[in-house]
Write a structure and sequence with these properties.
The two termini are 24 Å apart. Helix content is 53%, strand content 10%. The protein has 8 helices and 4 strands. The chain is elongated and about 65 Å long.
Length: 190
């Protein structure tokens, strides 16, 4: 068998991630619906605005840890202004803490992830982790999941995953393109 190098994404490739964000967004929409009852806004309105503000935050600041919780507060601020409803520091604090709670979830591997990585290693393939996000958040996930056992020191975290970053990894690791593969869940970045 020919030895291959396989780069893996982390979130929603090796471990579950988006489902935790979706659960927090659902709780956020319920809280907002209670606070803004009678103003004519729907949970769908809150979710759509939060998504727009979150994506704008990612574009401006990258995947920093505070981005997601801040998008919940920004959405709250937006609807407070639209409704003419006085903002509450306590409500904003609760939303920020709700947003941070997404990072406190346990690591949940995708089915057969461990067996697959173990088999690839046993067959002599080189494994590299290349993921996007906040450096501290992603490294904490790696540690919680004990993923160093598969990737050792070959763990790369970038605020955004870009072609330039991937090219840098290819050069740093002295990888051959014809025997290097990227596995992930994003057609755009993987």
């Amino acid at each position: 068998m020919n030895r291959q190098t396989i780069l893996f994404d982390l979130d929603d490739t090796l471990i579950y991630c988006n489902k935790y964000f979706m659960a927090v967004i659902e709780r956020f929409a319920v809280m907002m619906s209670g606070w803004f009852a009678g103003y004519g806004f729907t949970p769908k309105d809150f979710k759509r605005t939060q998504k727009r503000l979150d994506l704008a935050g990612v574009k401006a600041h990258g995947f920093v840890k505070e981005r997601f919780p801040q998008s919940l507060v920004e959405t709250y601020d937006y609807y407070s202004a639209r409704a003419g409803r006085k903002k509450s520091g306590e409500e904003a604090r609760r939303l920020f803490e709700l947003g941070l709670s997404v990072y406190e979830q346990n690591i949940e591997f995708y089915p057969h992830m461990e067996q697959t990585l173990t088999a690839l290693q046993a067959n002599g393939h080189d494994l590299i982790l290349y993921t996007g996000g906040d450096e501290n958040v992603q490294r904490a996930k790696v540690k919680k999941g004990r993923l160093e056992r598969f990737f050792a020191e070959k763990i790369y975290v970038a605020p955004y995953k870009t072609t330039d970053d991937l090219q840098r990894i290819l050069q740093l690791e002295n990888l051959r393109r014809e025997s290097t593969w990227m596995v992930g869940n994003s057609e755009r970045t993987d």
